[in-house]
Amino acid sequence: MITHEQTMTTSEWEVMRIIWTLNEATSKQIIHFMRLKKNWAPSTVKTLITRLQKKGYLTDNGAPRDRLYLPIISEQEAMHHTLAHTIGAMCAMCVGQSLAEVLSDITLSRDDITQLQSILQKKLTQAPTTVACDCLPKERITHHVH
Fold it and tell me: Which NCBIfam families does the entry mention (predicted)?
């Protein structure tokens, strides 16, 4: 699991999705698929691969030619990290409404919905009536409307 604060850009996600789908990929494969998906230049893809290695999402086998790139973490771990990081940066008071809006806009499987319902039902028994705003230190909050 990623423990640092390095998040991926949308472009980096595109590259990683190819590598996760293939389990491992050469730069030629990544360039090929990115050209099909986004018509990106090889230099753009190579720059993104280098950035992903520096951020700790990607490694390679060290071969001088036809280097093979492998993900350091799973797609699910990266998704969890990114969502947790994004939600952690939001006002705690507004997270529920934002999640509700996003959930209403995305396609979910029946299994996903059942799992979410189960989680929410369990959380309901211990949920507070309201969630306080955490945008400012408590001693500074006098009035905050979202």
Answer: CopY_TcrY (TIGR02698)
Residue 2 above 60 pLDDT?
no
Phi-psi region of 69 (alpha: psi -120 to 50; beta: other; left: phi over 0): beta
Confidence of residue 66 (pLDDT cuts 50, 70, 90): confident
Q: pLDDT tens for residues 92-108?
A: 999 999 999 999 999 99
CA atoms within 13 A on the CB side of 1: 8
Separation of alpha carbons 75 and 86, rounded Å? 16
What is the DSSP code string of 50-86? HHHHHHTSEEE---SSSPEEEESS-HHHHHHHHHHHH
Domains annotated for the chain, with CATH where assigned, are 10-71 (1.10.10.10), 91-134 (no CATH)
The pLDDT of residue 1 is above 50? no
Q: Which residue has the tokens 């990114």?
A: 82
